[in-house]
UniProtKB/TrEMBL annotation:
Protein's name according to its UniProt entry: Maltose/moltooligosaccharide transporter
Major facilitator superfamily (MFS) profile domain span: 242-441
InterPro entries: MFS, MFS_dom, MFS_trans_sf
Domain of life: Bacteria
TM stretches of this protein: 12-30, 50-70, 82-99, 143-164, 184-202, 246-264, 293-312, 321-339, 345-367, 379-400, 412-433
Length: 441
């Protein structure tokens, strides 16, 4: 089927992926500042991963279901994936705007749950859209362009609270209240999220099912919730071998990044800046700086993706080897955070992390999309998300706290050592992937 698809230009691929800018605004604000909100509302550092648990649990349920439904959706005007883009955009925008106005921990945790569920509704169809629209020879290129846009979003969104402070917004607030700088940042993020997804909806057409009569017959023959769930479970049990091999890589990769999202703010504000009082100006300034440094990994992932997009458009690449090297580089970046002596060195650390992040957001999906039936692309992209959310659930249920204390000791900065070790293990796990169709363009 893929050989009949037209090769698209850079700007056509850019338009169909532009909604990821908004999605990443949501994820970057969520990943960079929800732990800060939790601490502001009185959460203990060791309780933070548990407060995050609703997010991956929601993704575990939502993405396979959304993928299954989007595979079976078609409207001549609205398409297959675009209705899910719009629904997710509306819900995400509301949740992102309201999150920093939480007045209690349970409200903030609930806002995170709704936000993550809503973003997931939009995100999975975006992954499937690349595989829907592009021939196999452009898959790596397409996912790398998505990563380029994600990098832009990560960098800008991670710096928004700092920028709001520079523009005069208050960066401190009474105890238990989120500062205005964070509230304004989340409000801007909500606006960008909705408008960027709407841009993709308005500028991108979708291919109809190849055999419309067969498609309609399958829809009529396979109705009902229980049939849908049964088919999802059948697809899980019959997943391609490459997906299982990639699952090992994904487990270590996303355990590492969940550790960063949960603990980067408390670890770095304490270890590097010596700030622990969450209502103090010193802590809030340090937390803004952490957001700035986290933005570095987004900025570097953008440039790395830009280089990869140029290379992937010109020559065939070895996806497995590229992913292996990139993950190991990111692992060393995390480990170096423990040893730095000057704050500017955090830019170097997170630059290495950015290399890994760019690869995580592109290479696994490129490898997977070459091994999946096109008509099941949505549901398999959703199922593949299991290998993202399961490690986060394990981490949130005590995996991070148990491992970093057991292996490295009690200090919270040791979470970064754990993240680095896991990312290096993820890199070497690529050696399990042997299918040449998956590993090469």
């Amino acid at each position: 089927m893929t050989e009949h698809k037209k090769r698209l230009s850079f700007w056509q691929i850019w338009n169909m992926s532009f909604g990821f800018l908004g999605i990443q605004f949501g994820f970057a604000l969520q990943g960079g500042f929800m732990s800060r909100i939790f601490q502001t509302l009185g959460a203990d550092k060791d309780a933070i991963p548990f407060l995050w648990i609703a997010a991956p649990l929601t993704g575990l349920l939502v993405q396979p279901i959304v993928g299954y439904l989007s595979d079976r959706t078609w409207h001549p005007k609205f398409g297959r994936r675009k209705p899910f883009f719009f629904i997710g955009a509306v819900l995400s925008t509301i949740a992102l705007f309201l999150a920093p106005y939480s007045s209690a921990l349970w409200m903030a945790a609930g806002a995170l749950w709704i936000l993550d569920a809503s973003i997931n509704i939009s995100m999975e169809p975006f992954r499937a859209l690349v595989a829907d629209k592009l021939p196999d020879s452009q898959r790596s290129y397409g996912f790398v362009v998505q990563t380029l846009i994600i990098g832009v979003g990560t960098w800008i969104a991670s710096n928004l609270p700092w920028l709001m402070t520079q523009m005069g917004a208050s960066n401190t607030a009474p105890e238990g209240v989120v500062p205005d700088s964070v509230k304004f940042a989340f409000g801007i993020g909500a606006l960008v999220l909705f408008s960027s997804i709407l841009y993709t909806i308005l500028t991108t057409d979708e291919y109809p099912p190849e055999n419309m009569e067969e498609f309609e017959q399958e829809k009529k023959a396979k109705k009902g919730v229980f049939h849908g769930l049964n088919e999802i479970f059948q697809n899980i049990s019959g997943m391609p071998k490459v997906m299982k091999q990639l699952g090992v890589v994904q487990f270590f990769s996303w355990f590492a990044f969940f550790t960063m999202w949960s603990f980067a703010t408390p670890a770095i504000t304490e270890h590097v800046f010596g700030a622990t009082d969450t209502s103090s100006a010193a802590y809030n300034d340090a937390a803004d700086s952490v957001g700035n440094y986290l933005g570095t990994y987004g900025l570097v992932s953008m440039f790395y993706a830009l280089i990869l997009s140029f290379v992937a458009s010109k020559i065939k690449i070895n996806r497995k080897l590229l992913h292996l090297v990139s993950l190991i580089a990111g692992g060393f970046g995390f480990i170096l955070i423990y040893f730095i002596t000057e704050t500017w060195m955090l830019h170097l650390c997170f630059s290495l992390v950015g290399i890994a992040w760019a690869s995580i957001l592109s290479m696994p999906y490129a490898m997977l999309s070459s091994s999946v039936e096109p008509k099941k692309m949505g549901v398999y992209m959703g199922i593949f998300n299991m290998f993202i959310v399961i490690p986060q659930i394990v981490a949130a249920l005590g995996g991070v706290n148990f491992l970093y204390k057991l292996i490295f000791g009690e200090a919270v900065i040791n979470t970064m050592l754990l993240a680095g070790t896991l990312l290096i293990l993820a890199g070497f796990s690529n050696l399990f992937i042997t299918d040449p169709k998956a590993t090469h363009d």
